[in-house]
Structures are given as C-alpha cells and as structure tokens.
Amino acid sequence: MVSAPGVGSGLDVNSLVAQLVAAERQPTANRINLAEARANGELSAVGQIKSALSSFQDSLAALTELENFQQRTVSLSSEDYISVSATSAAVKGSYDIEVQQVAEAQRIASIPYASAETVVGTGLMSFTVNGSSFAVNIVEGEDTLADIRDAINDAADNVGVQATIINADDGARLILSSAETGAANEITLASTGGNGLLWPFNFDPASGINPMTELNEGLDSIAVINGFTVTNDSNSVSDAVEGLDIDLLQAELGTTTSVEIGFDDTAANAALTSFVNAYNALASTIDQVTSFDAESGVAGALLGDSIVRDIESTLRRELSNVVGDSFTDPFTVLAEIGITTDLSGKLEIDGELSAAAIEQDFDAVGLLFADEDDGIAVRLDAIITGLLESDGSISIREDRLNDRLEDLTDQRERLDERMLQVEERLFRQFSALDTLLAQFQSTSSFLTSQLANLPTPRAPSNNS
Prior knowledge:
Strand order of the largest sheet: 1-15-3-11-12
Order of helices and strands: HHEEEEEEHEEEEEEEEEHHEEHHHH
Shape: elongated
Helix content: 40-55%
Radius of gyration: 46 Å
Mean pLDDT: 89
Distance between the termini: 61 Å
Strand content: 15-25%
Number of domains: 3
Number of helices: 9
Number of strands: 17
Low-confidence stretches: none
C-alpha cells in the first residue's frame, strides 16, 4: 500500500515538516557555522603568520653565520694559470703568483705484447707507493696481460696504482699510473717467484732495475707566491695563504698572475636589504591579521590575540637590543649601520649609511648579526625556531584550532542525526493528522450526500 502524505486531506505535509525542521535546525546550525568560520579564519591567519616567520628566518641564513655574510671577491689578471676561491678567513689584499711547475702523476709502461689476451707468466707482483705496499699473485690460468691489469685494479689493499692497457701499433702495453700526483707517490715494482716470466714488470729506479719505461715522472707542484716558493704534492694549494684555495692549472716560468682579494660589499648589502624586506613583510602580515576597520567594523582574524602580541613585542625588543660592548665594538645597534624603525614599526635602511658601515669595518657589521653569543640574527633565528617547533606556540595554536574544527564537525553530525529524528517524529504526527483529517472529510462528504438525498417536504394544501 502506497502512502502519500496530504493526498487524502490536501495538507502539504512534506512542506510543513521541512519548514519546521529547518526552523529548529537554524539556531544551532548558525552557531556552528559562525564558530567554524571564525576557527577557519584564525587558522588561515596563523598560517600566514607562520609562513611570514619562515620567510623571515630564511633571510637570516645569510646573517647567522659569519662566513655567509663575510664573503670575499676574487679578481685574477689571467685565468690561464690558476683559479682561486676565498673563504671569510682570507685577508683583503693582493698576491702575485707564478706557477713554475704543475704536479704530475707518474706513469710507466711495459714492453709490448701481441694482445691483451697474451699469456705473460706467473708470480708475485709487489708494489710500493709512498711507503705503503701491496701485492698481487698471478697464477696459471689467470696470467694474461688483461688478467694482470684486472688483478691490480681489483686488489682490496691497492694503495694507489691504476692499471690500463693501450693497444698501439707495436702491440699491447700495460700502463701503470700513480693515483696521486707528486714525487712521493712514485711506483716501485718487484716481480718474483712463479715461472719467472714477470721480470719485464720490474721497476726500481734506485736499483737501476727498470725493464718498464717511465712515461711521466711523478712531480710536485712549484708556485712562487709573493716571492716565496711553495711546493706541494698536488695542484691544489690550500695551506699557503689562509683563506685561499689555489688550483694550479698551467706552468709558465716568468709569468705572474695578480690576485686581488676584496670584501663582497654587494652580497653584504643584499643580505641587509633582504633582512629588512623580510621583516617588513612579516610586520605587514601581523598588521593585516590584527587590523580593525572602524568604518566597516571588519576586524582581522587575530585582533587582540595574545600570541601575536607576544611575537610582535619579542621581535621588536630583539631588534633594539645592544650587541657586544658599546665601548669597544664599532657597531652595537642596527641604527649604527643605517637600519632604523619607523613610526609604524617597519624597518628602514639607509643605503649610504649601511655602505659606509661596511666600508668602515666589514667584519664588525657581520658580527652585529652573527656573533655566536648575542648576534641579532642569531637571537632572532633561535626565537623563530622555538615558535615554529612542534611544541612551539604557533604549532600549539594550530593544533587547538584543528581540534576545534573537528569538534564542530562532530557537532554538525550530531545535529544532522537529531534533525533526522525530529523529521521522522513530525512525519508521524502529521501523517496521523492527515489520516484524521481525511476521515473527517470523508464523513463530511457522506453526510452531505445523505442530506442531499432526503425527500423534499410537500407544501400544505389550501383545501386542508
């Protein structure tokens, strides 16, 4: 049996139930929606603060480490003979460098054989390089020229000998090269035992036993820096001048390369400008989320929020704190290097003053930010790290807001369940009313019909 509420009585049950359910739902739904919108707004605003703090912390990376700030410039009169890189330990100044000899690795070659697959012989090959030794045992069945090459290269205790085979017009030769440059890394080789056929691989210049041919002598590099000779077993010279890494590329007697080391003022000024811009972006974000428009009555999501006030006041306090000793240090506050705070709380940078401070004492400007005890950037970085950690105030606030949103979702689900129950109850009540009204209407129709069928009374006669 199909039931259609309202068909019998004409009562619009569906519409009445829907309106009554909506009316009962609205106050609670409005409260949940308002609370959810507020929580989402605060969560979004906290996310903006978090992002701005992270960006500001990124700008501090060039200032928290003294070496990052105190970069050096390197200028060479020629790039043909040397390359130079400088760390913050390099002193500003000039150097004249002459490359008299570049370091080379020793190479020796065997007599020619028919091919790499030629069987050579068996025995023990003992190598010595710079006081360290290793040996390979060449056995029958694994005694071709290629086998000897592979045995040398695969030796677990190989101390620096590289073996290759070159196939030339006169045959295949085993080439042994020292893995490292320098005279101290020359190779000596003694072949003993076995069938005695490995004797062509002996090489010992001191004893005069040299069946192998020396192709390249192991050489140390020789450079003259500001008139002083520097000898090294490689072409990378890092201990001759503090803070300079010098790579020797090509030797040319009598040719000097001029090297100028300076302070990288451009990078330093860029770091200061980035710091100011990032802080101002953070300040603008804080202003936005805590603003109030008196005309429209619209308030920022975090207006009056205690966490934001604490962050703002802490950062401003750190920016104004004194660094170091005002009696001995050239710069102890930001204003002394041209960075000041305007009336709105934003930072301003005077390019001329900051450039003059860098020119006056490059290292002191870096220390103002990067002093490991109380540098401004070091302190700010530590504060922001604490704020952004999982147990920091920002993360705790986000967790609470997310918990609040989850609770509101639960409340909405409970409201939906309750409204279903209300709807079912109202449908039962109105369905019963609909049935009753239909019965009344049916009875009314029946009575009306019966009354209509009653005989009409006759009019009285005049004769009676």
